[in-house]
Amino acid sequence: MFTGIVQATCEVVAIHKKDGLHTLEVAFEPDLREGLTIGASVANNGVCLTVTQIADDRVFFDVVEETLWLTNLVNLSVGQSINIERSLTFGSEIGGHILSGHIHTKAKVMDISHTEQHYDLTLGIEPKWMDYIFYKGFVGVNGCSLTVGEVSESGFKLHLIPETLKLTNLNRYNVGDELNIEIDSQTQVIVDTVERVLARRFNGSAR
Asked: What ranges cover the Lumazine-binding repeats (predicted)?
């Protein structure tokens, strides 16, 4: 599990591509590698990946075909930076909200509004996922726990503070690029449960 508080942005130094599998080599600073072992879970742009090898300052991750298809890791290139968070440990402070590292979908950057006063991203997403995204609710975006701004039928807005821009890669995306989205699991359970209960009541009353 993860908190959605990005610990660092790390450079992709190599990508080994095979049929249905990419192996990422990511440069980790010493403090981020401390205590890291093979088999550990690390969020890369919000995607939970398993450490397969550690060599000097590099950490290796395998990304399978389904993950490539579902996430923006398929679009990575050498030299890009990705958001990194080590898995949550017992006793850690939870400053964001609980994330699983399982990406539900991708959102496309529709608009960027950047002034001296603000940095806003407008994201477009498949309408079916908007059932789980609410104004002032939480959503995981490239592994960042963020508060939702204005919402529409097909998307939502994010108001990013300078600290978020400094610690993450969200200001390195352009209009048309895609971001990984993990919806809040508690919200999903509540919405789906309410819909099932209402559907049963409606079907029962219609008989």
From this structure: 1-97, 98-194
Residue 45 phi, psi dihedral angles, 5° rounding = 55, 35
Which residues touch 48 (CB under 8 Å, ≥6 apart)? Answer: 2, 41, 42, 87, 100, 101, 102
Rounded alpha-carbon distances, angstroms, from residue 68 to 50, 75, 121, 152? 14, 8, 24, 28
Q: Which domain covers residue 50, as residue numbers?
A: 8-86
What are the tokens at 166? Answer: 């400094």
Task: State whether 115 and 172 are in the same domain.
Answer: yes
**Planar angle of CA 23, 170, 3, nearest 5 degrees:** 75
The H or E element spanning position 167 is helix 162-167
CA distances from 104 to 107, 141, 205 (A): 10, 11, 34
β-sheet bridge partners, residue 32: none
**Is the distance from CB of 119 to CB of 160 less than 8 angstroms?**
yes
Domain boundary among 86, 115, 139: 86
Decide if 23 contacts 58 (C-beta within 8 A). Answer: no
- pLDDT, tens only, 104-154: 999 999 999 999 889 999 999 999 999 999 999 999 999 999 999 999 989
Q: Is the pTM of this model over 0.85?
A: yes
Which uninterrupted H or E stretch holds 50? strand 47-55
CA-CA distance, 186 to 181, in Å (whole number)?
A: 15
Length of the chain: 207
